[in-house]
From TrEMBL:
The keyword RNA-binding applies. Residues 21-95 form the RRM domain. The gene is Rbm45. Gene3D superfamilies: 3.30.70.330. This is RBM45 protein. CDD domains: RRM2_RBM45, RRM3_RBM45.
């Protein structure tokens, strides 16, 4: 199994260079590039490691890149490394690092729900879920319906929605006539379901395929 390039792409090697061999990870701010290399060298031959630093202070932002020689090595690192690294494939270099960092914080990092409060933001500039947004105008519930034009893989969809604490179950179904994806997601609290819908409705998974996430009526009191 390998990843096919689009017809508009250049050579296969160009595609590997830009999209398939570089991963983006969250790391402790104390990590050096040597520390980063040491943690990820077990998955394959590393071409280089780099740590993103504050341009003004020179301090680490707690984010870094690891570039492997082969796409299979990058894929193995994403699959096998500790979940605390939040490893994903890096965007091509022609996308600004600031834009990619913003997308990373918005879509990949695990939201922290403290008690009954909605999101805790790692950094203020990435916090777009203001208190006013919690005044939901539609019926809410602990249960969500997820629809996609592509079929889902149970383990992958579970891992995606499990980024929001409180996931109770993920039931993936498939329409044999259209081959589209459909799943029912349930959380332990309505707050978790609201946050999951807010973060993952319209999220591209896999890239180019937008998810539609709506509430399923389950008798939850929306005023609560």
């Amino acid at each position: 199994v390998f990843i096919a390039q689009s017809r508009a792409s250049g050579s296969h090697r160009d595609l590997e260079d830009e999209e398939l061999t570089r991963i983006f990870v969250m790391i402790p701010k104390t990590y050096t590039e040597e520390d980063l290399r040491e943690k990820f060298k077990m998955y394959g031959d590393i071409e280089y490691c780099s740590i993103i630093k504050n341009k003004t202070t020179g301090e680490s932002k707690g984010l870094g890149y690891v570039r492997y020689l082969k796409p299979s090595q990058a894929a193995l690192a994403i699959e096998e490394c500790d979940r605390s690294y939040r490893a994903i494939l890096a965007e091509p270099k022609n996308k600004s690092s600031e834009s990619f960092e913003h997308d990373y914080y918005s879509n990949v990092m695990r939201p922290e729900l403290r008690g009954n409060t909605l999101p805790f933001c790692m950094q203020p500039e990435f916090c777009s879920f203001e208190k006013a947004d919690t005044r939901i105008q539609e019926p809410v519930s602990k249960r969500l319906s997820v629809v996609s034009r592509l079929p889902f893989i149970q383990e992958q969809l579970f891992a995606l929605f499990d980024l929001v604490p409180g996931l109770e179950y993920c039931d993936v179904q498939r329409d044999p006539h259209t081959n589209s994806g459909y799943a029912v997601i349930q959380y332990s609290t309505a707050a978790s379901a609201i946050y999951a819908k807010y973060k993952l409705h319209g999220f591209e998974y896999p890239p180019g395929n937008r998810l539609t996430v709506i509430f399923l009526e389950d008798g939850t009191d929306s005023s609560e």
